[in-house]
Amino acid sequence: MAVILWAMGLFLLMQSSLCSVGQTDRGCMKWTPKGENVCCEICHPGNRLVKECGRSPKDLCIPCEPNTYTVKPKDFRCARCTQCIGPQFQVKQCTATTDTKCGCIEGLICGDDRCSFCIKKCDRGQEPTKERSCRPCPDGTFNDQGHQMCKPWSTKCPKPYQEIVAEGTAITDIKCANVSVSPVHRPKQPDHTEQEWPLFLSGITSMFLLAIIIVIVGMKIYQKRKKTKKTITKTQIIRTPTDNPETLIAIECSFHEAQQEQGSSTESLDSKDSSEQLIG
Known about the structure:
Low-confidence stretches: 1-23, 235-241, 264-269, 271-280
Mean pLDDT: 77
Helix content: 25-40%
Distance between the termini: 213 Å
Structural class: alpha+beta
Radius of gyration: 65 Å
Oligomer: single chain
CATH topology of the domain at 23-80: Tumor Necrosis Factor Receptor, subunit A, domain 2
CATH architecture of the domain at 23-80: Ribbon
Strand content: 15-25%
Shape: elongated
Number of strands: 17
Order of helices and strands: HEEEEEEEEEEEEEEEEEHH
């Protein structure tokens, strides 16, 4: 027991010496004259006010006692340093201007900003209560972080082309997935160089095909005209032989010969009749 008391006394002595470390200024830091005296407005950090007015500014404020501190520039008393006890452990020692900073062991968390007490740390899917305990997230809410209040599930997906595929749980929000029917895609901006080359090839191909078509059509028209001309030439020779001058001359000569033969026959008949008349 004596050893424990000796250790506690040594710890308090060391803490007191640490509280005074860095304490160089004492008394009043800002004052105003009032007759023969001065009145203090602000004490030096780590000093408390003894009296408001006096002859010397140094006598108006004095440093805080060991294991005490103050954060107020004009206060008559210093506050006692907080002691980390139970499930707490000391993170930072107390000074004349700051209180002791405590922390909580694993599995627990500070119950307030000053960490004056520890409470059970709530897991995911739970939330803390006013009774410093944990309860499961109510239906329709979730908590995906440790020791936080539960949040309600989302009512719609974050993106317009998504739809809800699963409800939330106590530790997760709703699940969304992209709609496969009409996905939204941004068209890629075409490159001008890539556009000009296909257009050039398309133009050359079109001109080549057009030239081939013109040549084929021209050849067909030429062959058709040549065939028609041959047919007309043959028909003229067969049906209209009188168009040939030689033929006309031959026909005319035949006609004259026929007339001469007919004339000779007539003269023979006339001479025969004359001779018969003379004999008779």
